[in-house]
Amino acid sequence: MMTGDFSKSAALPCRGGSTRSVPSSSYSSSASRESSSYGPDSALTMVLSGASIAVNLGAAVYNCVNGGDWTVLAACLLQSFLSLYLTVFVLGVITTITEWDNIYCSATKKVWYAITFPVFMFTYIPIVIVSLFHNPAWQPIHHSRSVDLKQIESLITERTKIVAMTQVSNVLGRKYPVQEVAAMAHKKGAVIVVDGAQSTPHIPVDVQALDADFFAFSGHKVYGPMGIGALYGREELLEEMPPFLTGGEMIESVTREGAVYAELPHKFEAGTVNAAGAAGLKAALEYVSGVGFAEMQRRELALTAHAMEALGAIDHVYILGSSKPEEHTGIVTFTLDGVHPHDISEILASDGVCVRAGHHCAQPLLAHLGLNATVRASMAFYNTPDEIDRLAHSLSTVRERMGYGK
């Protein structure tokens, strides 16, 4: 036990030979020095690091429970343990290099702050990622690629004017609850616009049962000609809307003072009508009706199941969306490790297999999935199992043909 006049001060050495006066009571004994070797600065940092780890894990768990991706939880767990390890590592480095028992040395404190606080901030990077990119309030899509109706309802407010959604995703093939969302929109006085381009060729559509205010689909996806489609609109809304194009056929009469618009739907059909396209679309719809949706769905489901089994057996192929064929509505979208979707489509095309590659006009969805582009194989009732086998065989050779080896 050391003795002395504790009312006096003493000088402690710092690195480089400088000294700093501190109260002598701060090192009155070797035991007290040991107990203070993890002084106020280290205690504060340990508390802050512990708090950051707790918040990090809490954010990750909350995100996953509320519809986020469980891979985020795994990443945050790894990040938390790494943060803890770095904190302990920094304590060890400071203790070894800077004579840590001299916690009042200015040089030691500078080194401490320079290393510890960046480490502390590093623990919050996952929280920022979770908040910005995996926030369920902004991304109402489950890891199963279904939607959370409660989150959608929370996003529709009295300020909402238009709710736009797709009936069937042209990336995932999943059907979405249009009728339920329409009820939410109408409750807040909003109008709902439905994209039926992917649904109309595969499932029967009843716009009145869906309670859609507007419903659009394209002609070429329903086996009709390109350059034509159809837009259904609720009559009372169309009556209130002014025409956005003017020209021949959309007016009843014109004077110097004004014009009287033609009746619906001619009010919105300015110019020469695409008569040939309309005739082709009519023939296509009659053809689909003749085959019947029940038979079409039966064939497409069998082909989809066969495609998911065949493609899923290929190494490095990842199929997007549900694992259930019945939730793909005739399409299978996938990626192949190390090969861009455009290269995949070109190689498949050289083998006589036609697929679609790109973002499929769904960039926000692909951004949410962490992808820039994908490959989509679309099955129709006229396709055959042999064609699915050709797709699978060609795809199984792509990586080798790109130089990855067997």
Description:
Helix 2 runs antiparallel to helix 3, helix 2 runs parallel beside helix 5 and helix 11 packs parallel to helix 14. The strands form 4 sheets. Strands 3-4-5-6 form a 4-stranded mixed β-sheet. Strands 9-10-12-11 form a 4-stranded antiparallel β-sheet, with helices on one face. The protein has a two-stranded antiparallel sheet with strand order 1-2. The N terminus is likely disordered. The longest helix is centred in the first third of the chain and has 28 residues. It has 406 residues and is α+β, with helices and mostly antiparallel strands. It is globular, with a radius of gyration of 33 Å. It is 45% helix and 13% strand. The chain has 15 helices and 12 strands.
Characteristic key phrases:
4-stranded antiparallel sheet; disordered N terminus; alpha+beta; 4-stranded mixed sheet; globular; about 400 residues
Shape: globular
Number of helices: 15
Give the overall average pLDDT: 79
Distance between the termini: 74 Å
Number of DSSP E strands: 12
Low-confidence segments: 1-40, 131-144
Percent strand: 5-15%
> How many strands, what sense, and barrel or not for the largest sheet?
4 strands, mixed
Fraction of residues in H or I helices: 40-55%
What is the spatial order of strands in the main beta sheet?
3-4-5-6
- Rg (CA only): 33 Å
Structural classification: alpha+beta
The run of helices and strands is EEHHHHHHEHEHEEHEEHHEEHEHEHH
